[in-house]
Specification:
The complex is a heterotrimer of chains A (about 160), B (about 280) and C (about 775). With about 160 residues, chain A is α+β, with helices and mostly antiparallel strands. Chain A has a five-stranded mixed β-sheet with strand order 2-1-5-3-4. Chain B is α+β, with helices and mostly antiparallel strands. Chain B has twelve helices and twelve strands. In chain B, helix 10 packs antiparallel against helix 11 and helix 11 packs antiparallel against helix 12. Chain C is α+β, with helices and mostly antiparallel strands and about 775 residues long. Chain C folds into three domains: about 180 residues, Aldehyde Oxidoreductase, domain 3 (Alpha-Beta Complex), CATH 3.90.1170; about 300 residues, Aldehyde Oxidoreductase, domain 4 (2-Layer Sandwich), CATH 3.30.365; about 140 residues, Aldehyde oxidase/xanthine dehydrogenase, molybdopterin binding domain (Aldehyde Oxidoreductase, domain 4, 2-Layer Sandwich), CATH 3.30.365. Chain C has a seven-stranded mixed β-sheet with strand order 3-4-1-11-8-9-10, with helices on both faces. Chain C has a five-stranded mixed β-sheet with strand order 6-14-13-12-7. A four-stranded mixed β-sheet of chain C has the order 15-23-24-25, with helices on both faces. Classes of the chains: A alpha+beta (about 160), B alpha+beta (about 280), C alpha+beta (about 775). Chains A and C meet through helix 2, helix 3, helix 4, helix 5 and helix 6 of A and helix 1 and helix 16 of C.
Chain lengths: ~160, ~280, ~775
C-alpha cells in the first residue's frame, strides 16, 4: 500500500506491506533506531514516538495507519534543536543507565512538556506511567522532566 | 494480508458491503496489532477506522451527548462536554492504561473487544447510554447499553455492521462515579470496576444506576445495593449494609470463580469510595 | 564501640592526597556514554543494520516434560526465504552447564543446544533460519512438533521427592554450612520458626536477549553478545562446538540491561552453531515472551528459619533450611543456594548456625544468576523471621538488630574471609534517625481502611570470588597516547551500571587526566587479558583496585622515563592536569612527552598488570520502608523509603544512587507484584509484561539515600560494591512494613492483594 507521511520533518512516500508495523517502518525501513522494541505489546513504552503530537507506542500501530500523519522520534527532536533542555536535564540528573528505555522516556516527556509548561511531579509520573525502566527506579527521570520544564521556561524568557 | 483505510463512512459502508468473512475492523490497535504481530501466519482483511473523522465526533445532539465510536480515551478525558455532562465517562477514560494507550484506544474498541474487564461498558450502563450500530446499507439500530450482548459485538464486521456512536442521555445527574480495582494503581486491567449515577431529591437518592464490571461478560446491575439506597433515606443507611449488599452481588454473579473471595471483599473498597462521594454530594 | 582493623594492603589510599583534593573520584562525573544514549545513537545489537545476516527464530518446546517424537518442517520449508530448519539432530551431543567457566568446575552438565527431551515449556528444540525475522517467525510457527508428554513437576517441595527429571541427574543436591556448638537446649530461650516463600522472578531488562555470530575471514568463530562473562561464553562455545579456545572470539556487545539475566550462556551456542553450519552471519533475537520463558529466572525458594534467642534479644542459634528451585536445568543453581548460606554468618554475631540448602529441579524455566545471587531470597527468609522474633520479644526490630549486628573487623566464623570495615551499624543508626524510625514504628497499624506501617531489613553481600572455589583475577593494560589521551584495556562489561565511567575516574585521578580523555575498553576475548567477569559484585572492588594500581604503575614508569630523558630525579617530576612539571616549572604536556619517549627511548608510556584480590569484605545495606495498605482491596502503596548503604567510598555518588533506586524498584516488585506463574501442565501463565507487572513510575516511592563512606581497605579509594546489594534488603523491608501495618505474619512473596486479603480475613 502506498502511504505518505512526515517523519522527523521530512516527507516520505512509501510502499508498505499491510503487515508492517509503525515500529518496523521507523527502525528497519527509515533507520530511526532510537525507537526500541522491548515487549511488542504496548506495555513497556520503549517504542514511544509522537504521532501528530501525541505519545503512542509504535508497536501497536500498523505502518499504513500512519498515512497522513506526522511522526517525531528522538532523532527528529535533535534535528529541530528541541532536545537540548531535556538532554541537559537528563545528564544533570543522571537519568540514564543502560539507556534502552531512554528514547521512549524522552518522547513521553516531550509530549507532556508540549502540553504543560509547569508540570507537577504527579504529571511527570503520569506522563511516563507507560514507560518501564529497570535500571533507574524512575527517580532521576522524574526529576529530569521537572528540570527540563524549568529550563524551557527560562529559555522562553519567562520567569518561573 | 490486506488492508484498507476508508476516508469516510460511505467508503466504509462499501467495504462492509462486500460481506467478506475475514474482515477485521481496526481501531486503536492495542489488542489487534499485538495479536497480528504474534501470529504472522494469520491473514486478514483489515479495515482501519482511524481515518474516518465522522466517527470521532463529540457533540450535543438534542437530548443526547453523541460520542463517536472512534473517540479515544484521551479525547474523552480532554473533552469539556464529556467532563461536564458525563463526568464518570471522562474519569473512566482517564484511568485506562497509560498515556500511549489512551491516545489510541477508542470507546468503540473497548466495547467491541468483548473483554469482560473493559472499563467503559459499566459506565455506559450507569449512564443509561445507547449504542448505535450501523449497517452497510446505512441503517441504524440502537441497543440500550444495559441490555447489550457482548457476543453480538464479536460478529459485527462479518454481518457488515459497525458501532457508529454512543448516545448518552443529558439528564440531570447529581452524581456520576467510576472506580476500578486492578493489580496496581495505574496501568492495569480491571479485576473489578464500578459505575454509578443517580439523582438526588433533597437527601433522597433517586434513579440509582449501579453496575459492576469485570465480573460477568457484561456489567451486572447491583440490584441489592441499589434497592438499599432508595428504600431508606441516606441518613439511616449504614455503610456496612451497603457494602455487604455489593458483596452479595459479587457472590451471586460468580459463585464458583476462584477470584470470588477476593472480589467479594475488594468490591467494598469501591463501595466505600462511592459512599464517601455520595455523602459529600448529599451534604 | 568500633574495633580497630588489622592492617590490610591499602592500594586505594594515596598518602599525600587528602579527601578534599580528589578531583574525579567521589565526584558526579558524567557517564561516558550518556549523550549517545540520549540521542538514540547508542546502538544495541538489534540496532545494527543486519547486512547479510540471516535471522534465526528458536523453536521452543510447548510441553513442560516430554520427548520429541517427530518434527515435520515441510510446511516451514515451503516459505520463501527459509534457509534451514535446525532440529535436535543438529545438536553436537555435548552437554554443558550455562554457568561453568572452567573445565574443572563440577556443576552437572545437563543442557544441550537443541534437545529432543524438553524439560520445560520454552526448552530449545530447534531453530528456523531465514532471510528476515518475520519469515523465520512464520516458519517457526509452522514447524509441527509431536511430543510424548510425561507428568511435569511444578512444585519444588514435590520435586524433592520425585524421581530424577533427567535420567542420570540426581534430583536433589544438598549442601551444608555450619559452625559453633549446634542447636542449644531451647529451655529459657525464645524460639521463632517461619517459612518464607520467594517467587520465580523475571529479570525484565528492557532489552530482550539477542546474539550475533559469524565465522570471520580467518576462520575464527566470532560471537557478539550482550553478556557478562566473555570468557565463560568462549569456554562453553569451545566445549560444545569442539573448537580451540584461541579461535573462538567473543565480543561483548552493548547491553540494554541484564541484572544477571544475560550472565548465563543461553543463545550463543545455538547462534554459533547455525553460523558455522551455514557459513553466514546469524542473528538470533528473542521477543519478550521468549525472554520471559526461555532464558533464566531468579531462583524461587522456600526458606524455613528457626531462631533461638535470649529474652533480651541476644541471638543464640539459627537454623536455616532452604529449598531452591532451579527449574529444569542446574545452571549455577546450586551455587546460588550455597551463596545464600554464605551470607548468613556475615551480618549478625550468632554463636552457632546451621544452613542446609537443597537445590532441586522442576519442569519450569531454569533459574540462573539474578541480581543478588540468592541474597535477596535468604535475607527475605531471615529478616522476616527476625521481625517475628522482635514481635515475640516485644522489642523494636531495629533495637533487636543493633543488639546482634556485626562490628567492623569481625571475622567470619565459618572461616570465610573477614568482614572488613563492616559499617552496617552506622547504616542502621543513621537510617533510623533520618527515617524517624522510632516515632513511625510506634504509630503503626490501625483498623481503618488504610493502614500504615514501617519496616526495615539489614543485609550483606560480597565483593568478588576471593575465598570461594572460583578464580578471581584480572589483567589490564594502560597506555598514554601521543595526544595525552589514555586507553585502559581490560575485559570490562558495561551493563549500564557505570563501570566504564568509574574506571575512567579512577585512572584519571591518578594520572590527572580528565575522565573524558580516557577510553576504557570492553571485553573481547582475542584482545582482553583474562577477567573473571561482571559478576559477584567484584568490579569496583577488584577491577577498580587493579586499575588504580596499574595507573600508579604507569605513572611511576612515566616519571622514571622522563627522569631518564631529562636527567632528573623522580621527586622533582610532577603531573598536573595533563602537564608535566619538572622542579615546579612546566615542561610539556603528556602527549608531547609520549612522543619524545617514543623517539628517544624507543618505549611506550604504558604498562600491564595482573591483579588478584587478597580480601573479600562485606558490603552492607539497610532499607527502611513505609507502606499504606488498603484493607478493602489489598493494594499496597510504598509511601516512603530510605536506603542506607555502607559503600566504603562512592567513586561516583550519583551513579551509586542510581543503582540504589533501581535496586529498590526491583525489590519492591519482588515484595508486591512479581511472580512467574505456571498452570498444572507447566505452561507459563504470565509471559508478557501486561501480566507480569513491574513497578511503574506511579508506584515508585521517593527514595532517600544515606551513603556511609568509611573506607574499605583493598578497594580503590576505599570503595566496595553496590550493584547487587542495592536490591538485597528491599523486599524484606517492605514485607516487614506490611506485617507491622496489618499485624499479620505474611510470608508468601509476592504479597499480592489476594494474599493480603486472605490474611486479613482471619482477623475479621
Amino acid at each position: 500500500m502506498q502511504i505518505r507521511l512526515m517523519v522527523n520533518d521530512r516527507r516520505y512516500s512509501l510502499g508498505v506491506d499491510p503487515s508492517l508495523r509503525l515500529v518496523d517502518l521507523l527502525r528497519d525501513v527509515l533507520g530511526f533506531t532510537s525507537v526500541k522494541e522491548g515487549c511488542s505489546e504496548g506495555e513497556c513504552g520503549a517504542c514511544t514516538v509522537l504521532m501528530d503530537g501525541k505519545a503512542v507506542t509504535s508497536c501497536t500501530i500498523m505502518a499504513f495507519q500512519a498515512d497522513g500523519s506526522e511522526i517525531l522520534t528522538v532523532e527528529g527532536l535533535e534535528n529541530r534543536g528541541e532536545l537540548e533542555p531535556i538532554e541537559k536535564a537528563f545528564i544533570e540528573n543522571d537519568a540514564v543507565q543502560c539507556g534502552f528505555c531512554t528514547p521512549g522516556m524522552i518522547m513521553s516527556a516531550k509530549a507532556l512538556l508540549d502540553k504543560k509548561r509547569k508540570p507537577t511531579e504527579e504529571d511527570a509520573k503520569r506522563a511516563i506511567e507507560g514507560n518501564l525502566c529497570r535500571c533507574t527506579g524512575y527517580v532521576p527521570i522524574i526529576k529530569s522532566i521537572l528540570d527540563a520544564a524549568e529550563r524551557m521556561e527560562e529559555d522562553a524568557g519567562t520567569s518561573s | 494480508m490486506r488492508a484498507r483505510r476508508p476516508r469516510d463512512l460511505s467508503e466504509l459502508r462499501k467495504i462492509l458491503g462486500s460481506g467478506k468473512p475475514d474482515l477485521k475492523l481496526l481501531a486503536g490497535g492495542t489488542d489487534l496489532v499485538v495479536h497480528l504481530n504474534a501470529n504472522p501466519g494469520e491473514d486478514w482483511d483489515l479495515v482501519d477506522l482511524t481515518g474516518i473523522k465522522e466517527l470521532k465526533r463529540i457533540a450535543v445532539e438534542g437530548p443526547f451527548l453523541e460520542i463517536g465510536a472512534l473517540a479515544t480515551f484521551q479525547d474523552l478525558e480532554d473533552s469539556q462536554l464529556v467532563r461536564s455532562k458525563t463526568a464518570c465517562l471522562a474519569e473512566a477514560a482517564a484511568m485506562v492504561g497509560s498515556c500511549q494507550i489512551r491516545n489510541r484506544g477508542t470507546l468503540g474498541g473497548n466495547v467491541a473487544n468483548g473483554s469482560a474487564a473493559a472499563d467503559i461498558p459499566p459506565v455506559l450502563c450507569a449512564l443509561d447510554a445507547l449504542l448505535v450500530i450501523e449497517s452497510r446499507d446505512g441503517n441504524q439500530r440502537t441497543v440500550r447499553a444495559e441490555e447489550a450482548n457482548p457476543d453480538d459485538f464479536k460478529s459485527l464486521a462479518a454481518r457488515g455492521e459497525f458501532i457508529r456512536k454512543f448516545l448518552v442521555p443529558l439528564e440531570e445527574r447529581d452524581l456520576s462515579f467510576f472506580d476500578k480495582v486492578g493489580s496496581r494503581r495505574a496501568v492495569t486491567v480491571s479485576k473489578l470496576n464500578l459505575a454509578f449515577s443517580c439523582k438526588l431529591q433533597g437527601s433522597r437518592i433517586e434513579k440509582p444506576r449501579l453496575f459492576l464490571g469485570a465480573l460477568a461478560p457484561w456489567p451486572v446491575r447491583a440490584v441489592e445495593a441499589e434497592s438499599l439506597l432508595t428504600s431508606v433515606t441516606s441518613k439511616d443507611l449504614a455503610e456496612t449494609s451497603f457494602l455487604d449488599a455489593l458483596s452479595k452481588t459479587v457472590e451471586k454473579t460468580i459463585p464458583d470463580r476462584a477470584s470470588m473471595p477476593y472480589k467479594r471483599q475488594a468490591v467494598k473498597g469501591l463501595g466505600n469510595h462511592l459512599w464517601a462521594n455520595l455523602l459529600e454530594v448529599i451534604r | 564501640m568500633t574495633k580497630t582493623l588489622s592492617p590490610v594492603k591499602e592500594p586505594g589510599i594515596i598518602g599525600e592526597k587528602a579527601e578534599r583534593d580528589l578531583k574525579y573520584v567521589g565526584r558526579d562525573v558524567r557517564r561516558v556514554d550518556i549523550e549517545r544514549k540520549i540521542k538514540g545513537r547508542f546502538n544495541y545489537l538489534a540496532d545494527l543494520p543486519p547486512g547479510g545476516s540471516l535471522h534465526a527464530r528458536l523453536i521452543l518446546s510447548k510441553v513442560a516434560n516430554g520427548r520429541v517424537l517427530s518434527i515435520d518442517d515441510s510446511k516451514a520449508l515451503e516459505i520463501p526465504g527459509v534457509i534451514k530448519v535446525f532440529t535436535p539432530v543438529d545438536d553436537p551431543g555435548v552437554r554443558f552447564n550455562s554457568q561453568v567457566s572452567m573445565p574443572n568446575q563440577e556443576d552437572f552438565r545437563d543442557e544441550k543446544i537443541f534437545t529432543d527431551r524438553p524439560l520445560f515449556v520454552g526448552d530449545r528444540i530447534g531453530a528456523v533460519l531465514a532471510t528476515d525475522p518475520r519469515t523465520a517467525q512464520k516458519a517457526a510457527d509452522l514447524v509441527k512438533v509431536e511430543y510424548e508428554t510425561c507428568e511435569p513437576v511444578i512444585d519444588p517441595e514435590q520435586a524433592l521427592s520425585s524421581s530424577p527429571l533427567l535420567e542420570g541427574r540426581p534430583q536433589v543436591i544438598e549442601g551444608r554450612i555450619s559452625y559453633g556448638d549446634g542447636e542449644a537446649d531451647e529451655k529459657g530461650l525464645v524460639a521463632v520458626e517461619s517459612v518464607v516463600r520467594t517467587p520465580k522472578i523475571h529479570h525484565a531488562a528492557l532489552e530482550n536477549h539477542i546474539c550475533l555470530a559469524y565465522v570471520d575471514y580467518d576462520g575464527t568463530l566470532t560471537v557478539e553478545s550482550p553478556c557478562q562473562m566473555i570468557f565463560t561464553v568462549r569456554h562453553i562455545l569451545a566445549q560444545t562446538l569442539g573448537l580451540p579456545l584461541n579461535k573462538v572470539r567473543v565480543i561483548k556487545a552493548p547491553v540494554g540491561g541484564s541484572f544477571g539475566g544475560k550472565q548465563d550462556i543461553i543463545l550463543e551456542p545455538a547462534c554459533a552453531l547455525m553460523a558455522i553450519e551455514t557459513r553466514r552471519p546469524v542473528r538470533l533475537a528473542m521477543d519478550r515472551k521468549e525472554t520471559i520463558i526461555a532464558t533464566r529466572t531468579r531462583t524461587a525458594t522456600i526458606g524455613r528459619v528457626k531462631t533461638l534467642a535470649r529474652s533480651d534479644g541476644t541471638l543464640v542459634f539459627r537454623r536455616m533450611d532452604v529449598i531452591s528451585d532451579t527449574g529444569a536445568y542446574l545452571t549455577g543453581g546450586h551455587r546460588v543456594t550455597m551463596a545464600m548460606g554464605k551470607k548468613t554468618s556475615r551480618l549478625y554475631r550468632i554463636p552457632s548456625q546451621v544452613f542446609v540448602g537443597k537445590t532441586t529441579y522442576t519442569n519450569t524455566t531454569p533459574s540462573g544468576a539474578c541480581r543478588g545471587f540468592g541474597s535477596p531470597q535468604i535475607h527475605a527468609a531471615t529478616e522476616i523471621n527476625l521481625d517475628f522474633l522482635a514481635k515475640k520479644l516485644g522489642m523494636d526490630p531495629a533495637l533487636l538488630r543493633l543488639k546482634n549486628l556485626v562490628y567492623p573487623g569481625d571475622a567470619d566464623p565459618t572461616g570465610a574471609p573477614p568482614l572488613g570495615n563492616a559499617r552496617v551499624r552506622e547504616c542502621l543508626e543513621l537510617g533510623m534517625e533520618r527515617f524517624d524510625w522510632k516515632r513511625r514504628y510506634r504509630m503503626a497499624g490501625g483498623t481503618g481502611r488504610y493502614r500504615r506501617g514501617v519496616g526495615l531489613a539489614c543485609s550483606t553481600h560480597g565483593n568478588g570470588y576471593y575465598g570461594t572455589p572460583y578464580p578471581d583475577f584480572t589483567g589490564m593494560s594502560l597506555r598514554v597516547c601521543e595526544d595525552g589521551s589514555a586507553i585502559l584495556n581490560a575485559g570490562f562489561h558495561e551493563l549500564g551500571n557505570g563501570t566504564l565511567t568509574a574506571m575512567a575516574q579512577i585512572v584519571g585521578e591518578i594520572l590527572d587526566i580528565p575522565p573524558e580523555k580516557i577510553y576504557v575498553t570492553e571485553g573481547d576475548t582475542q584482545h582482553s587479558p583474562f577477567d573473571t567477569g561482571c559478576i559477584a559484585s567484584r568490579v569496583t572492588y577488584v577491577c577498580g583496585a587493579c586499575a588504580l594500581e596499574l595507573a600508579e604503575k604507569v605513572k611511576d614508569r612515566f616519571i622514571r622515563q622522563i627522569g631518564k630523558l631529562y636527567g632528573e630525579i623522580p621527586e622533582d617530576i610532577k603531573f598536573e592536569n595533563g602537564y608535566v612539571y619538572i622542579k615546579d616549572k612546566p615542561c610539556s604536556d603528556y602527549g608531547t612527552m609520549v612522543i619524545e619517549i617514543a623517539n628517544r627511548l624507543n618505549e611506550e608510556v604504558g604498562d600491564f598488570l595482573t591483579y588478584k584480590p587478597e580480601a573479600n569484605p562485606a558490603s552492607y545495606g539497610v532499607h527502611f520502608a513505609e507502606v499504606e495498605v488498603d484493607a478493602f482491596t489489598g493494594l499496597v502503596r510504598v509511601t516512603d523509603f530510605l536506603a542506607a548503604h555502607d559503600v566504603g567510598k562512592a567513586i561516583n555518588p550519583r551513579m551509586v544512587k542510581g543503582q540504589i533506586y533501581g535496586g529498590v524498584q526491583m525489590g519492591i516488585g519482588m515484595a508486591l507484584t512479581e511472580e512467574m506463574i505456571y498452570d498444572p501442565s507447566g505452561r507459563p501463565k504470565n509471559a508478557s509484561l501486561g501480566r507480569y507487572h513491574l513497578v511503574n513510575a506511579p508506584d515508585m516511592p521517593d527514595v532517600d539515600i544515606i551513603l556511609v563512606e568509611e573506607n574499605e581497605p583493598g578497594g580503590p579509594f576505599g570503595g566496595k560494591s553496590i550493584g547487587e546489594i542495592s536490591t538485597v534488603p528491599t523486599a524484606a523491608a517492605v514485607v516487614n512494613a506490611i506485617n507491622r501495618a496489618l499485624n499479620t505474619q505474611l510470608t508468601h512473596l509476592p504479597l499480592t492483594p489476594e494474599r493480603i486479603l486472605d490474611a486479613l480475613s482471619v482477623f475479621v
